[in-house]
Amino acid sequence: MILKENLKYFEARRKAFINYLPDYSLVVIPNKPISIRSNDVEYKYKPNSDFYYLTGLDEPNSICILKKEKKSFQFILLVEPKDKNREIWTGKKIGLERAKSIFKADLSFPVLNFETTFRELTKDIEFLYFTFGVDKELDLKVINIFNELKTSNRTTIKSPKSISDSRDIIHKMRLIKDKYEIACMEKAAEISKNAHILAMTYAREGSYEYELEAILEYRFRHNGSNGPAYPSIVGSGNNCTILHYIENNKKIKKNDLILIDAGCEYDYYASDLTRTFPENKKFTSAQKDIYSIVLEAQLKAIQEVKPGKTLNHCHDKALSVIVDGLKSIGLLKGTKDKIIKNGEYKKFFMHKIGHWLGLDVHDAGPYYDEKGNPLKLSSGMVLTIEPGIYISDDLLDVPEMYRGIGIRIEDDVLVTKKGHKVLTQGTPKTINEIELLSSSGV
Ligand SMILES: [Mn+2]
Q1: Into how many domains does the chain fold?
Q2: What would the pLDDT profile of 46-55 be if each residue is shown by its tens digit?
Q3: What is the CA(384)–ligand 1 centre distance, in A?
Q4: Are both 306 and 374 inside the same structural domain?
Q5: Is 83 annotated in the active site?
Q6: How many angstroms is it from 301 CA to the middle of ligand 1?
Q7: Looking at 59, 272, 360, 363, which residue is catalytic?
Q8: Which of 410, 411, 412, 420 is catalytic?
């Protein structure tokens, strides 16, 4: 639950958002319904990120409505009313009163009365914004009422001309993080860093991948985060070459590399961190060859993170290092231009350099502007830089010593006014830093 003093940031976002809208607009953003894991047991709840971004509320069965008329706007929350008997089972609800007193809604209504409230609020509205696809039942209700308004044209009441999607506006806003968001992301990154150090120290020949998963997630919760932001990836040996390996059930063998891609979520903000290291903290010469290339690519790409540059530019910088490196050890042949043009490197580096990071681990927000040009980085954006080289053990045309080596190095980077700040700084990364770690256990 969010601290009351931080709700001012959410209020500022609503004000900024409403400025993008024409007069006589109504925006309806539902929160996500709960989802069932098995029989009557639910998945751990995570609110719809757009809803949370504008309200700070993480209660299911709630709807945010913003109404903009000429020079005035209202924030309306639809929530479950307080009900002592139900709350014994479900836990405390914020209720209609606190929706106003704490969450600063101008009006609040029971969520069960959505249809009546919505019908009433659409009077004299010209532009309706709705987020389809979050709550399918609500999608139908909104379409039905919209149709009903369109067919009752014998009155003087105006009805909305069209339904637009508010996501484009909110997602652009979400690209630039405010002070409170950056604080959450710094905290998430710090907890993830500590969890990785603990797992790296614990790892050794004979332990199981899931033991490392348990240590990471213990640390995530122990340090006050919500838990993992995405399923933790702990791969050893050839499993390092599988991009989204989450079985995490293999026993770690002597000289195996271990790839850990795991990040916690703090106040719903994600971190996303990857390190690859040998179980005994001693790189073999083949592992060193590949690791050095990925590390150089990652450092070069991070150097380029600054206002005015693009994520594609960072990708190209890293790619150039990777192609040179793979050529120098004979895994790619021919001219650099041809290798890049024909995509021959994709056999070993098949994903992009990174992605936006925020309330969603692969955060919302466009990567290209309206003209189709890559979006320029600007202060307040947070992204990941995560190059990798993956050499599956079934690539029989590759010298045997390189087969089964998979390496990815990933950090979370905040774009600042003058350059960048690596939020996950301090997680052992150079060969020396990793080899200095002991295997002394937890
Ligand atoms: Mn990532």
Answers
A1: 2
A2: 999 999 999 9
A3: 6
A4: yes
A5: no
A6: 15
A7: 272
A8: 410
Answer yes or no: is 290 within a domain. Answer: yes
Distance (angstroms) between ligand 1 centre and the Cα of 228 equals: 13
Active site residue 272: yes
Instruction: Give the single-character DSSP code of 333.
Output: -
Q: Are residues 325 and 243 in the same domain?
A: yes
Evaluate whether residue 442 is within a structural domain. Answer: no
Structure tokens at 69: 């008329």
Instruction: Determine whether 222 is an active site residue.
Output: no
Model confidence at 442, pLDDT cuts 50, 70, 90, reads very low
Last residue of a domain, one of 171, 190, 220: 171
Set 80, 265, 363, 386: catalytic member = 386
Choosing from 171, 201, 216, the residue where a domain stops is 171
What is the DSSP secondary-structure string of 67-108?
A: EEETTEEEEEEEEPPP-HHHHHHH----HHHHHHHTT--SEE
209-243, pLDDT tens digit by residue? 999 999 999 999 999 999 999 999 999 999 999 99
Q: Is residue 205 domain-shared with residue 66, that is, in the same domain?
A: no
CA 49, 53, 55, 57 torsion: positive or negative?
Answer: positive
Query: Is 313 designated active site?
Result: no
- Tell whether the model's pLDDT for residue 1 goes beyond 90: no
Task: Report how far ligand 1's centroid is from the alpha carbon of 151 (Å).
Answer: 48
Structural domain span for residue 216: 176-435
Report the distance separating Cα 65 and Cα 67, nearest Å: 7
Is residue 244 part of the annotated active site? The answer reads yes
